[in-house]
Automatic annotation (TrEMBL):
SUPFAM superfamilies: S-adenosyl-L-methionine-dependent methyltransferases. Pfam families: Methyltransf_23 (PF13489). The keyword Membrane applies. Signal peptide: none annotated. The keyword Translocase does not apply. This is Methyltransferase type 11. The chain crosses the membrane at residues 117-140. GO terms for biological process: methylation. PANTHER family: METHYLTRANSFERASE, UBIQUINONE BIOSYNTHESIS O-METHYLTRANSFERASE, MITOCHONDRIAL. Keywords: Membrane, Methyltransferase, S-adenosyl-L-methionine, Transferase, Transmembrane, Transmembrane helix.
Length: 203
């Protein structure tokens, strides 16, 4: 296991997260694809099942080097926009030529688009241990319009932290969102790490 991957699920603040992923950007894809990174394709298939249409814009939140964007395109989505903290990761994503737009975002700042601009969102391997905080789920859900859908994941490390499970429950338990899909399965099978994929719809 690389030194980056061994530290990937360690808690850090947003500035440290940006630096970590900037430093990892050049080798990130080779490392995780060698471990059988299964989550992007799982998420894209799940969102496609419930999206209804494939020409509506999809926000790829925390798009990284673009693996989720590529999976969304492969699943049939035609308009994909990505946002990420890391400029180095975004540069890698740009080279894939699957995004309509790519935007660097600042931690703790408002997302650079209007409420309701995206009825479809993906947060693939993003909200969890060592990455975006649990509160990022609330940020995305508030931006979704009624009937909007978000696909997200929680890997084994994240599922051990009640804050992340609790953030999801805050929306589904009170009826503010409906759980359309939940599936446990492989995340990085090369290190026996699994993840749960969810699709939730804003009520």
């Amino acid at each position: 296991m690389s030194s980056f991957l061994s530290k990937a699920f360690t808690a850090r603040d947003s500035a440290e997260t940006r630096t970590f992923y900037d430093d990892w950007a050049s080798s990130y894809e080779a490392e995780i694809t060698a471990l059988g990174y299964a989550t992007p394709a799982r998420c894209a298939a799940a969102l496609r099942k419930y999206a209804g249409e494939t020409n509506a814009p999809v926000l790829d939140f925390g798009c990284g080097t673009g693996l989720a964007g590529q999976a969304l395109k492969d699943a049939g989505f035609t308009v994909i926009d990505g946002v990420d903290l890391s400029a180095a990761m975004l540069a890698e994503a740009q080279a894939k030529d699957v995004y309509r737009s790519l935007t660097q975002i600042e931690p703790g700042q408002a997302l650079p688009f209007a409420d309701g601009a995206y009825a479809l969102m993906a947060a693939v391997g993003v909200i969890g241990a060592g990455a975006a905080p649990a509160g990022a789920l609330h940020t995305l859900m508030r931006k979704l319009p009624k009937g909007g859908k978000l696909v997200l994941t929680q890997n084994d490390h994240t599922l051990k932290d009640p804050a992340f499970r609790g953030a999801l429950s805050e929306w589904t338990d009170c009826g503010a969102a409906r759980l359309l899909f939940r599936e446990d399965g492989p995340h990085l099978p090369g290190i026996n790490l699994n993840a749960t994929v969810y699709v939730i719809e804003k009520a």
